[in-house]
Amino acid sequence: MRIxxxxxxxxxxxxxxxxxxxxxPVVQCQNVTRxxxxxxxGSLLGRKEHxxxxxxxxxxxxxxxxxxxxxxxxPSGSGKSTLLHLLAALDVPTSGVVTVxxxxxxxxxxxxxxxxxxxxxxIVFQHFYLLPALSARANVALPLVELGLSRKERRSRASTxxxxxxxxxxxxxxxxxxxxxxxxxxAIARALSTKPKLLIADEPTGELDTETxxxxxxxxxxxxxxxxxxxASHDQQTLDRMDRVVRLQDGERIDDHA
Length: 258
Ligand SMILES: Nc1ncnc2c1ncn2[C@@H]1O[C@H](COP(=O)(O)OP(=O)(O)OP(=O)(O)O)[C@@H](O)[C@H]1O
Known about the structure:
Layout: E1 2-4, E2 25-41, E3 49-65, E4 69-73, H1 80-87, E5 95-100, E6 103-104, H2 110-120, E7 121-124, H3 136-146, H4 151-164, H5 180-192, E8 198-202, H6 210-222, E9 228-232, H7 236-240, E10 244-249, E11 252-253
Parallel strand pairs: 4-9, 4-10, 7-8, 8-9
Antiparallel strand pairs: 1-3, 2-3, 2-5, 5-6, 10-11
The chain binds adenosine-5'-triphosphate.
Adenosine-5'-triphosphate is lined by residues 1, 36, 54, 56, 74, 76-82.
Protein name: ABC transporter ATP-binding protein
Region (Disordered): 1-25
Domain ABC transporter: 27-258
């Protein structure tokens, strides 16, 4: 994070470069900055107030291509979640351009952004966010209601996905009847239900023991043919399994990507 007391700062405009150039880009950030502007106290006595700008991500460029597994690493507060939200089209940049499947996210209305997420992106949050009253299968099928699939199609796709993540025999279990690793698998199956081109996961192994975490990472490897994957993590075991790692510090990209 960088804090500035005016809203004029942006980093130098550099171009993106040598990330894997073999396959088509799924999501691309070009010189992206995300700042938050709020009120800060301006004097020691706090009598004056002035505008304070926190730059969470500064002039970052990243391209994620089909079949890639990309990690995002950095200390707490370095901008990982902010970058993940930009890549997931949950947020738009203050400056720079994020394109998902070739479309500039800043050019879309909220409604169009939601549709773009539904059509292109699966998101797995650290705390799963499964609906407790619903079975595993109903949780996985939920996004498909918005896609307009029939009940039969929804059930069938959800069952197939639960089978795929190794939970074919747990379909009717509620989240509270599943272990942490099983809940994470349900969350991954749900994120995959819309057949996304990009799967985004925030600390996907953060709440899991080493062995369960490793099985989730095996699953990500198996999904490579279906979608690109971006994972923000502090966990070295997770980062070691990625094709490459984007490293952030104070909102800036510090790995050698030129
Ligand atoms: N909505 C917001 N308003 C103001 N500042 C914010 C906002 N969101 C994030 N920040 C600031 O931006 C910086 C980067 O935050 P971010 O959550 O992206 O970091 P992180 O690397 O994901 O951290 P952690 O590993 O602790 O989750 C932090 O200093 C944070 O306080």
